[in-house]
Design goal:
Blueprint lengths: L1 E6 L2 H17 L5 E4 L3 E2 L7 H4 L1 H9 L2 H5 L1 H4 L8 E2 L5 H9 L3 E4 L4 H31 L5 E2 L8 H8 L5 E2 L8 E5 L2 E7 L7 H8 L4 H11 L7 E5 L8 H13 L7 H8 L6 E7 L8 E7 L12
Parallel strand pairs: 1-2, 1-10, 2-5, 6-7, 7-9, 8-11
Antiparallel strand pairs: 3-4, 8-9, 11-12
Helix pairs in contact: 7-8, 10-11
This protein binds zinc ion.
Length: about 300
Amino acid sequence: MAIKVDVDTHDGLKNGVPALMRLLEQEHVSGSFFVAMGPDNSGKAIRRVFRNRGFLGKMLRTRAVATYGWRTVLSGTLLPARPVALAFPDLMRELRARGFEVGVHGYDHVRWHDELDHLGESGIRAELADAFEAYRAIFGEPAQSFAAPAWRDNALSLTLLDSMGLKYHSDVRGRTPFRCAVEGRVLATLEIPTTLPTLDEVLGSRGLKDLRALVRFYLGLFRDDALNVHTIHAEIEGGPCLDVFRELVRALKARGVTFHRLDAVAQQVAALPMPVCDIVRSFVAGRAGWVAMQGSESTGAPAPEPEAA
Ligand SMILES: [Zn+2]
C-alpha cells in the first residue's frame, strides 16, 4: 500500500501534517505528502455552493466548518488567502528529512479545481511554473512528482507535465499504474492512480460513521494481489479522523500489508511493461463534480480518420 497525503490548506499543513507525521512515525509507516504550493483560497470553494448542489450536500454531510474551521472556510474571500507550503518551509524540509516523500499538489488548489478547463495553456503553464518554483525555493532542487488537485486533469495539463521529466504523477482514480494516452499519443510519464475511495467520500455517501465499520469497509476493498493507493487529507485524517486512520493503519499492518512511498513504487515498476490507458471523466459517490479516471486500455494510436464520402 502507498499512503498519499494531500495537503490543500494552510491549517492542514500547520496542524494536520505534524499529527500525521507523528502517527506514521509511531507506526513505522512511510508515505508521500503532496502539498499545495500557492495561496489557500478555500473560501472561494463556497462559491460552488451556488453552482453545484452536490457541493452543498457535501459541506453539510462532512460538517465542513467543524472540520476546516471558519478561518479556512473564509480564506481568500472575507479573509485574505494565506500561503500553504511557503508559510511553513521548515516543516516541509522536516517532512523530507524524516524520510517522507514530498511532492507538488498544484499551486492554487481552488483555481485548479474550479477553472482547469478555462485556464488555457498559458494559465496551466503558470500554475505549474509557480508551484514548481515554490518547491525549488523550499528545497533547493526540483520536485520529482505531482498530484493533481481534486484528481482533475486535461490533455493540456498532462502534456505540460509530461515535458517536465517527472518520475511519475498521481493525477487520477484508477486500478493500476499505467501510461496515459492523450489525443493519440502515449505520454512518457508514469501515472500511479489512487485506487481506494477517500474517507470524506465514504463518510459522505455511505453513512459509515462508526470507527470499526469504516475500518471493515476499507479492509473489504483492500486488494492483496495489487498495489493499493490510498489518498488521505491532512485536514481530515490529520484532524477529526485521526483515530480512524490510526485504526486502519494498525488493521492493515496486522494483515501483513507493507507500506511504500510512491516514488519507490515508481522506481520498482518503471522497467515493467505498462498498460496504456485513456483518461476519462467520471463521478465517484460522495464527491461533488467530476474526477479524472483511468479508462480502458488503449493502443495509444490516434482514432482513425473517418473516410471521406
Ligand atoms: Zn487536494
